Amino acid sequence: MSAVLMSEIALAQGNIDGCQVFPTNNIWNVPVDNLPLDSNSAAYVNTIGVATFAHADFGSGLWDGGPIGIPFVVVSNSPPLVSVSFDYSDESDPGPYPIPSDAPIEGGSQSSGDRHVLVLDQDNCLLYELYDAQPQTNGSWHAGSGAVFDLNSQALRPAGWTSADAAGLPILPSLVRYDEVAAGEIRHAIRFTAPQTRNTYVWPARHEASSLTATKYPPMGQRFRLKSTFDISSFSPDVQVILTALKKYGMMLADNGSSWYFSGVPDERWNNDDLHEFSQIPGSAFEAVDVSSLMVDPNSGQTSGVVESPPSTNSPSARNDDDPSIQYVGKWKEKSNAAAFGGEYRVANQKTAQVLFSFSGTGFTWLTARGRSDGMATVVVDGVETNTVDLYSLTNEFQYPVAITGLANAPHDVQILVHGTRDAKPHTKQVVFDGVTVP
C-alpha cells in the first residue's frame, strides 16, 4: 500500500502524524446524532440565519493573496523554542513555543485577519496555537493570545480563559482536512462561526465574546448538527463525506464571524467547485443540540455513556487493479504511471465497460483518477445505483478516492459502470480503475 494512502487512512481515524487528537470519548470525537434538540434550537437557527446559506471557508489556491483556510505545521526532533509575548497574557499559556520561522499564517504573511498559527509537536503530541501571530525581527513572536493543548488529555482551558479562538477551544481538532475526506470519513465535530453570540458559553467552551444578553443568541460552544432528513445524495462525493460528519458529529460554535462558515485546512487537492456546493445548504437545514447529558466534569472534555468504538487500527485490505478477484467487462487497456497505485492502472472509455468485484464490510474506497480526459461512472452496490461521479477536472490526479460508506456490515457485490462521456460535454471520456481498499 502506498505511503500516501496509509497517511489518509490514519488521518481518518483521528490521528495526525502519530498523535491521537484527544481520547476517543472526548466531546470533540463523539457522535451527537441521537442527542435531543436544545430547547432554543429554533431561535438560534433563526438568529444565525434560516435563509443564509452555508460556506466552506477553505479550499485550494489563493484568495486575497493568501491560502484559503487555516493551515498548520508539524514539528519534531526537539525544534528550537522561541519566546512569545501576548496582548492577553493573563489568559494565555506562556512560551516558549516551537514555532518555525516559516510557520504558515492564516491568510498569508500579509494578512490583516485572524492570523492563526497552529503548530503540532508530534514527539510530545502537544498542540500550540496563536491568534494574531506576528513574527518579530529578533526571531520571537507576538500574538493576541495563545494556548497549549495536550492531545492525550481531557483537560479544558481554565474557566473564563480564551485560547487562540474566542470560545477558548482548540482549533486544529475542529478543522476539515483533505486527507480524512479522501479516506472517506470525518470522526469529529467541525468548527463554525456565527455573526452574533450571547455573552456566555456552554461546555466545553471556556470563554464568551459578546455583550448581547438575549437568549435568541447562541452561546459560545453551542453544538449544532445537520438535520438527519436533509438529502445529501446529490452532492459530490467529497462534500457528502463532510455533510455526513455534520449529521453525525455536528459542529461547534467557536468564534464570531460569517453565518454558517465552516473551517478547514487549505490544500491544493480541494476542488473548489465541489466546495461551492455548500451554498446549496440553508440555515434551516441545521439544528442545535443539547450535549449536557454527556458531561462528566465541567472542567473536562470527557464524555459519559456509550460512545462509538474507535475504528480498527488494522490496515485496510488493498487490491490493485490486477488483483484476480477483480473482473473487467468490455475493452480495458493496461497502462503505467508512477503516480498510479502500484505504478499501473486500467482505463476504458466505452459505455459497455464495467468493473466487477465483491467484498464484505460497511464500505470501500475506489481508487480512480480525475483530469481533462476523464468522465463519468456509476457505482452500483447489490444492484442499486449508489453514486454517480464526474471525474472531469482541470487538474490531473491519480489515486483519487471515491468513498462508498454506510452500507450494512455484510457481503456486497459492486459494479462500476463507464458512461463514456462527461456530464456537460458530449465528447468521449475515459474512466480509470486503479484499485480498491476495504477497511
- Alpha-carbon distance between the two ends: 13 Å
Mean residue pLDDT: 91
- Number of domains as seen in the coordinates: 2
Proportion of residues in β-strands: 25-35%
As laid out across the biggest beta sheet, the strand order is 3-16-13-15-14-17
Structural class: mainly beta
Tell me the number of strands.
29
Poorly predicted ranges (pLDDT <50, ≥5 residues)? 1-13
Which range best describes the helical content: under 10%, 10-25%, 25-40%, 40-55%, 55-70% or over 70%? Answer: under 10%
- Which geometry do the CA atoms define? globular
Helix segment tally: 5
Radius of gyration: 23 Å
Q: Profile the largest sheet.
A: 6 strands, mixed
